[in-house]
Specification:
Blueprint lengths: L2 H7 L2 H20 L3 H8 L4 H16 L2 H11 L1 H21 L3 H36 L4 H25 L5 H22 L12 H10 L1 H17 L5 H10 L5 H26 L1 H24 L10 H28 L5 H26 L6 H21 L4 H4 L2
Helix pairs in contact: 2-7, 2-8, 2-9, 3-4, 4-7, 4-16, 5-6, 5-7, 5-10, 5-16, 6-7, 6-9, 7-8, 7-16, 8-13, 8-15, 10-16, 11-15, 11-16, 11-17, 13-15, 14-15, 14-17
Organism: Kineococcus endophyticus
Keywords: Cell membrane, Membrane, Transmembrane, Transmembrane helix, Transport
Subcellular location: Cell membrane
Length: about 400
């Protein structure tokens, strides 16, 4: 089953969730990749201030996913999704008019926190819709999550392309355009999103957090799985350094993201379908092993002589392709595994904590990697390959103890 056939198999409300995810990513990547240039060149802020702002944006997003997940359990998908759109619109409008550090910080925090509301709501909605579609024999939940990855990736590619087309206009105009994208998502969901989404309601926001903290199997799973987000984040941290090693510049970085998008669109759904048939106990370790191989490829390229017939960009291209193949194997199956690990209760809180732990892994791991990362250094690539491989071994051991939830075919 391809991404197109999967799209045709899902009903209108689920398509609306997927469209919302696409538009949300488009609007986000329309602005955020160009934020650093605006802060440094447009507002004349120092480099450490730019780093602070960008770090705060990541923290306000990843660090608060657990809040959005718990709110989704309490109030449902639709209210939290709409609130996320409103907060994102407010954030971009604040960035558009903010000319001082307090205004920029306020817009940045609002922009990040909006995703912490929106994304767990969409993920929870897809999880419950996927369960119903799987029971009806339409598509599996893993295939639906794979399609979500596809539309998200296309949105993350469309956003920078549209942003680059707007480079000649003031940054404030770009922010208002992005706010308009989110206004479309807001209106569409306010008009057509079902008011009753089938997500069980929690009695309180804190009930979901208590359920997660008592779920030791899930916490172990989330800690091991968090290294996949750390690995993927190297597209932004380690890959540019590899390009400098190979070519002397980062000019090919945009092309690498195009390669990533093409690989995701072509293989995500078919690979996820195969992984779903194999079950999490096989697909998760395989996905992590393939991801570790991506880092091993670059590690080998830094220490071995390159034959004349091999292009300089070959290790970087290989890294991107193999990294996304590993992600295609692991991510949909892992996201499909969260509801059974949660006992189909407080699913939003579990998705939120899963994302927040990934954010912690990125924050801590990227600091370690960044300390040893330089063109030609083999240590960071070996370190990342080892961390991902160890996580894969841990997930293999854990999945053998999960019973039917990890081995469904």
């Amino acid at each position: 089953m391809t991404a197109r056939s999967t799209w045709r198999a899902v009903p209108g409300p689920v398509r609306l969730l997927l469209f919302s995810q696409f538009a949300f990513n488009t609007g986000f990547y329309l602005v955020v990749p160009f934020l650093a240039v605006h802060l440094s060149s447009g507002l004349g802020m120092a480099g450490w201030v730019v780093g602070l702002v960008l770090g705060l944006r990541t923290f306000s997003q990843q660090g608060f996913f657990f809040v959005g997940g718990a709110l989704t359990d309490r109030f449902g998908v639709r209210p939290v999704l709409l609130t996320g759109c409103l907060v994102r619109i407010a954030g971009f409008c604040t960035l558009a008019v903010g000319q001082s550090l307090p205004g920029v910080l306020a817009g940045t925090v609002l922009t990040g926190f909006a995703a912490a509301l929106f994304s767990p709501a969409v993920e929870t909605g897809l999880a419950h819709a996927g369960a119903r579609l799987e029971e009806a024999g339409a598509v599996t939940r893993a295939e639906l999550f794979a399609l979500d990855d596809v539309v998200s990736k296309v949105g993350s590619l469309a956003g920078p392309v549209l942003g680059a087309a707007l480079l000649g206009v003031p940054f404030s105009t770009t922010c208002f355009v992005a706010a308009g994208v989110f206004a479309v998502v807001l209106v569409a969901n306010a008009r057509w999103a079902p008011r009753v989404d089938g997500v069980p309601r929690s009695t309180s926001v804190t009930a979901g957090w208590g359920s997660v903290l008592r779920n030791r199997r899930f916490l172990v799973f989330a800690a091991l799985y968090s290294t996949l987000l750390l690995a993927y984040n190297q597209m932004y941290l380690a890959l540019p350094v590899e390009l400098v090693r190979a070519t002397g510049s980062q000019r090919a970085l945009g092309a690498m993201f195009v390669v990533a998008a093409v690989v995701t669109v072509l293989v995500q759904v078919p690979v996820a379908r195969w992984a779903r048939r194999r079950g999490a106990r096989h697909a998760l370790p395989a996905g992590f092993a393939v991801t570790a191989l991506a880092f091993a490829l670059v590690a080998a390229a830094t220490v071995l002589p390159r034959p004349d017939l091999v292009p300089a960009l070959a290790p970087a291209v290989g890294f991107v392709v193999v990294l996304h193949l590993g992600s295609a194997l692991a991510r949909p199956v892992a996201r499909d595994l969260v509801p059974p690990l949660a006992g189909e209760r407080h699913v939003g809180a579990h998705y939120g904590v899963l994302a927040s732990l990934g954010g912690v892994a990125v924050l801590l791991g990227s600091g370690v990697v960044g300390a040893v990362l330089e063109p030609g250094a083999v240590t960071p690539w070996v370190l990342l390959a080892a961390v991902v491989a160890v996580s894969g071994v841990g997930l293999a051991a854990l999945s053998r103890r999960l019973g039917p939830a990890a081995g469904r075919a």
